[in-house]
Amino acid sequence: MTQKVTLIATAAMGLEAIVAREVKALGYEDVQVENGRVVFTAEPSAIPRANLWLRTADRVKLLAGRFKATTFDELFEKTKALPWEDFIAEDGEFPVVGKSVKSKLYSVPDCQSIVKKAIVERLKQKYGVASWLKESGAFYRVEIALHKDEALLTIDTSGSGLHKRGYRVGQGEAPLKETLAAALVQITNWHPDQPFVDPFCGSGTIAIEAALIGQNIAPGFNREFASEEWGFISQKAWDDAFQEAEDFANYDQPLNITGSDINPDLITIAKNNAMEAGLGGLISWKQMQMSDFKPKQDNGYLVSNPPYGERMGEREEVEQMYRDLGSIMRDHPSWSVYILTSHEGFESLYGKSATKKRKLFNGFIKTDYYQYFGKSKKTKFSNNKSFSK
Ligand SMILES: C[S@@+](CC[C@H](N)C(=O)[O-])C[C@H]1O[C@@H](n2cnc3c(N)ncnc32)[C@H](O)[C@@H]1O
């Protein structure tokens, strides 16, 4: 297939602009930002590339069709009219999942079975199959998403969510999603030559994502994707995408990244995760309480997701930690500090108003990302910069 496909990179609320920036950095120009997604048109080879490279998107979906549907007949006929045979092989397995928000067609199980029936009829006709479809081949997860009577039909190209990089062999109690951790790093102006510290590192997600960004390592390099089995994407497109990821990785980039945590078990977990990510000894890990942190260099970046103090009995301790952090960092004005927390009193405890704030969701928890820019001269750093080499 040489014709273009429309792809949807799904994004957590608040991260759409960052996902769009990543899509553009891959060289795709026809990019539209919507709530919770970034839509772009590209050659089918964009499917391997987007899956391999997008650090902050949740999934990459292929848009099969988008239309208005207020009756089951309309849903059936419009679904059947789409060229499913362009994507789904004769023996493809295609479960249909669904969701419906503020729409006349609110029964999700009915919508799913109607869509399934319409695709089955279309494929039987096109492939000349009289009996039933075997569904013993590649996997295509079709989704019918209705929103205000608009039906969006997609096929998931990713398989498991893109946050599953394949390196997290262990985790603590409240690990950050890898996609959000990557976004926290991308929001900063950190350049890989500068010191980078997460003093509440837990299982190490932020530090590991920073190292992957710092060495321009494709986040999907160590995993598989559902669409690797799809016939309409050539093996060459996959081979080229993996080769490109290999070529653009900059393993010679020195890094100065440290993760520390009060809990020694988490340091062991973080170390193992970093090993699994192929980062070997690139990150320094240490068991340490935050109040012992003393920056030894200038122009560093502290990026962290500390405890929020939401648990019973934890609040006072956490508030003291925020005060301690503020007083340590006051003596190091060249450092930039980025803190994600749901604690609304953070700025007053830290003792300073943030240069910038950004609302983000950590799962279902509403948080703010407090950003304090250091007083050093800024270097403009654009992520995935190797694409413009
Ligand atoms: C929200 S978790 C961080 C999760 C981490 N971002 C991840 O992806 O796994 C907060 C971490 O702060 C650590 N912590 C709590 N009090 C601390 C202190 N006083 N000094 C250093 N670390 C502390 C906890 O052990 C926990 O791992």
UniProtKB/TrEMBL annotation:
One of its GO terms (molecular function) is rRNA (guanine-N2-)-methyltransferase activity. Coiled coil: none annotated. PROSITE patterns: N6_MTASE (PS00092), THUMP (PS51165), UPF0020 (PS01261). Residues 46-157 form the THUMP domain. The keyword Zinc does not apply. The keyword Methyltransferase applies. Keywords: Methyltransferase, RNA-binding, Transferase. It comes from the Bacteria. This is RNA methyltransferase. It comes from Halobacillus mangrovi.
